């Protein structure tokens, strides 16, 4: 089974399904999203969508800021295509520990979602993820996915690794291979058995090759669609692996094990 470990709700959803079909991907993890860069028709409209993304990953979102719409879009996509989409849901990191626990029980477990993410702690504040890890443990060790590219810092990655050690039964997935800090991400994952690396948006092929070589059972094929393309992401994995067990693990086997599929 080929499983894309990282994608966001598309508008329209049918566009996403065509991308998955083109890539030969059976299923994909689907995160809710406020920005929709796939809607952009020119540079100005893309800047507008990306400004929403920038506010989200820098922790500057205010009020509802599109959250209700994002959750509704996720619900609709999951209901329409349960055979293709594996639902994950994000958690507001401004909540107290008790509020996080209640939110995970109500909005993640209560909705039948399979994991938590993509979390976007503000730069320098990755410690905010810890209450989410505690709640994930309380509900059968749900996998937790955290944004790994900028503005996530190298120190944030070290904080996430420390949190993973404190919650050793919870799979903690760093997305985008840790961005520009990919070598640090690989080093930390090698030392931390429950730390996983999702491979989308890696900016050099060598980074993916090295990550898979060092962590064949804890690297995950992902596209970060619509920011990335499932066809290209799969081709990158296949370019750096030979046909056989390791390739099969990275393209879906590792994630299938995490999700008990």
| CATH homologous group name | Metal-dependent hydrolases
Major β-sheet strand ordering: 1-2-3-4-5-6-7-8
Helical residue percent band: 40-55%
Total separate domains: 1
Global outline: globular
Task: Kindly report how far apart the N and C termini lie.
Answer: 10 Å
How does the major sheet shape up? 8 strands, parallel
Rounded to an integer, what's the Rg over CA atoms? Answer: 17 Å
What proportion strand?
5-15%
Query: What is the CATH architecture assignment?
Result: Alpha-Beta Barrel
Q: What is the CATH C level class, in words?
A: Alpha Beta
Runs in which pLDDT lies below 50 for 5 or more consecutive residues are none
Q: Mean pLDDT score, rounded?
A: 94
What is the number of beta strands?
8
Number of helices: 10
Remind me, CATH topology? Answer: TIM Barrel
Structural class by secondary-structure content: alpha/beta
In oligomeric terms, what are we looking at?
single chain
Order of helices and strands: EHEHHEHEHEHEHEHEHH
